[in-house]
Amino acid sequence: MNTPLPAVLCFDVEDLVSPESDDAALWMARMLTEHGLTGSFMIVGEKARLWERRGRRDVIEAMKRHHLGYHSTWHSVHPTTTEHCVDKDFAAGIDALWEWDREGWQDTERILGRPLIGWARTGSSWAPSIQGLMGRLGRAYAYSPVRLPQTNVCWYGGCLGFYLDGVGGFDDTFVDDALFAKRLAEAQQGVAERVHTPRHGAHWTSVFMCHPTRAIHTAFWDAMNFLDGANPPRRDWKPAPLQPAAKMPTIQANFRRLCAWLRDERQLEIVGWGELVRRYDGQRPEVTHAELLAAARRIADERRVLFTDHFTAAELLLMLCRAATAPAERYPRPSVLGPLARPPRSPERTWAAADLGVAAQRITADAARSGYLPASVAIAGDTVGIGTVFVALAQIVLGAATAGGPAEAYYPSEAEEVARDPEKGIPQWPIHPAGMDLTKILEQTRLQCWTLKPAWPREDLGL
Ligand SMILES: [Zn+2]
């Protein structure tokens, strides 16, 4: 038999209108506990405040038996995550999001009485800055749109991100035995297939259990109120219609069936999200000079911005800067984010090793001061894009007396593929207004691919 797949049972707890949704979250959390299962509940901040205001200690205590993530303060109330960031660069987006969500985050940790593991994407509302914010707080991100071909847990924007990848879709099936049986069979089939998927690095399987509110209502709470950019005042919020009370035994019986399957499924290793974060949040602390030379050879051969199994392109660049100016046996892994603007097109020429060395020192100082790579650097009177410098420095480290690079080298080639997911997903969320201009967010998404690399289990890193 294959090694079981690490799997997280995810719930999004978010209805800010219907008090009945509090009870749904409660009995689901309890039923999981009865089955010896650990769930991971992604909780909207204002929802936690409502529990406190309504005196729902029972719900809060039931939640605390599981793993707890954040699901934004207001979820679908505008402005959403994307709307906050749509006209900002990565750094300004982080500041805007924290300004908006800091209080909710702090209230939720206080009310629930424990640190939140990270942030789970609300609908398909996303910007690279939300992962940057979690990275800054030392937290993880769930339902990330960023993945690599064989790795669905990746470093991006300084944050450990878990790509939304797995089985689920139970929301509106609990109410109907036949529908539920069909969906359960599909999930079981999905797990059986995933066991044989080739992988490289860290991986997880998300079992998206449900939105508790959607199991007992016939529609989404937010679709009732916030569709297509609508933002009515709170007094006008309407609850979604409830399923008939007579259906409750069916809903609960099917949820129990889901729990029973998961308890008995030997192909899954069910863990809390926080447990997987601890398993995967290690990184190689340093690179040896020999390893850096091997990376430099690849860069010089391929003449493009690239990352390796253990180091992002941004990390490689700063380590190349060190190796070009002060070679040593090993270099510590630096902490640095991608450029905030698209690098300019570079002149097609070469520069002397000494001039590139001066540029390397300038880049190192700039990154240390700001935390970001500069988009360009001046070399012997030329303005040179950072990707061009990346390729040129690799050659200098390998011993070249002069070196240049491709005129257009903006980010790793994976960036185009990474940006496709949010480009498609963000406009599909019915809460977002039609016609949002995503140009800036998508360019910032590509630029932060300077900080992309696979994650690894700590034991594979010898940590
Ligand atoms: Zn949600």
List the topology elements:
Elements: E1 5-13, H1 20-34, E2 39-43, H2 45-53, H3 57-63, E3 67-70, H4 81-85, H5 90-112, E4 118-120, H6 128-137, E5 140-144, E6 153-156, E7 159-163, E8 166-167, H7 177-194, E9 205-210, H8 212-216, H9 248-264, E10 268-270, H10 273-280, E11 286-288, H11 289-302, H12 313-325, E12 330-332, E13 351-352, H13 353-370, E14 376-379, E15 382-385, H14 386-397, E16 402-403, H15 414-428, H16 439-447, E17 453-454, H17 458-461
Parallel strand pairs: 1-2, 1-9, 1-10, 2-3, 4-5, 5-7, 8-9
Antiparallel strand pairs: 6-7, 6-17, 11-12, 13-16, 14-15
Helix pairs in contact: 1-3, 2-5, 5-6, 11-12, 11-14, 12-13, 12-14, 13-14, 15-16
This protein binds zinc ion.
Zinc ion (ZN) binds at residues 12, 14, 71, 75, 122-123.
